[in-house]
Amino acid sequence: MSQSKTATKTAKKTRHPNAAVGEYESPKLLIPVTIERDHIEGLSNAPLTLVEYGDYQCPYCGAAYPEVKKVQKELGSKLRFVFRNFPITSSHEFAEHAAEIAEAAGAQDKFWEMHDFLYEHQELLGDDNSIFAYAEKLGLDVQRLAKEVMNGVYLNRIREDFNGGIRSGVNGTPTFYINGTRYNGPPIAQDLLETLRSTK
Amino acid sequence: MLESKRKKHAKPRREAKRNGILQAGRKAPNFSLNTTPDQKVSLHDFHGRPVVLVFYPADWSPVCTDQLSLYNEIMSEFKKFNAEILAISVDGIWSHLAFSKDRKLTFPLLSDFEPKGRVSQAYGVYKNGIGECGRALFVVDDRGIIAWSYLSPDGVNPGADGILSALENLNNKNRS
Hints:
Chain A is α+β, with helices and mostly antiparallel strands.
C-alpha cells in the first residue's frame, strides 16, 4: 500500500509540464539495427545494444569515445555497439568528409579501425594525407578509398543515417539509444553503465 | 478601439498564466519582435504558411546551441513543408546577432527583450523567477492556429522529430 502511494507520488512529481502530451516518454529508435546495414561491434546477438549517432568532428563525441570503450570493456559479450553518422555540417566542416572516409574504409572491412583512428586523432580532420597514410598502414586500397570519397559514393548512406536519426529524436551529438530508447543522461561510462545494467 | 485592442492582447496572457503552455487549437498570439536593431518580424508576416516557433532559454548555453544547430542543419526538411522557423529568447538583439553569426544560423532569432518576456508569457512558456522562457516548440498552421505545442523538460533538447511529425500531420490534413 505504502509502496504504491510512493509510486503515485513519484509519478506526479515527474509528470511532464505539458499535460496534453502526457508523461515524458523518451523517443524511440525508429530505424532498427540490422546486421546487413549497420556497423556493429560485438556479438550480433548480445542482449544489450548501444547505438550512437555521432559526428567525427564533434568535441563531445570525441570526449564520449573513450567512455564508450570503457562501457564495452566492462560489459564484454553482453553488449553490441552500433555507430551511425550524424554530421552537423554547418558547424563542422570536416565532419561529413570524415564520415565518408570511415564508410569507405568500411567497404574494405576496416570501418572500426578508421572510426577509432578518427576519434583518436580529431586534430587531423581535414588533413587527408595523414588519414590516408593511416589507411595505407591498415592495408587498405587507398586509391579506391580516395576515389570513392571524391565521388561521394557514401553520401546517400550518410544522409540516410542522418534522416533516420532526426526522425528517431536525435537532438545533437552524441545521441545514444539503449535497446531502442533514447538515453538522455550524460555520455559518461558510469551513467551509461548504470542505465545499461538496469535495462531488461 | 485602443481599449479593445489591449483586451485582445491581454487575454492569451491571462489564460497562459492559468493553464501553462498554449495548446493546439488556440489562435497563436501575434507578435512583432526585433531580429536586428532596425528590423522587426511579426507572426502575421507568414500568414498562409506554417511557422515553427522555437522558444529557448538563452543564447550560448550548451543545450540551446545543440538544438538550434540541429534545426539549422535540417532547414531543407522544414522547407519541404514551406515552413518558416523563428527562434525566440529573452536575450538582447546584440547577443542574438553575435550568437547567430558564430553558429552560422540561417533562420531569424527574435528578441523578446522589451517588455521582457511578453511574448513568452503570451504563449505560456515564461519562467517567472528565472527570467527566461522554457524550451518550448509550437507549430502554427497557415491560418495562425496552433497545430501542436510541446514544452520540453529542462535540460532535454527536444530534437526535431515532433516538429516534423506535426508538419507532416498538417500536410495530410490539408490534403484530405
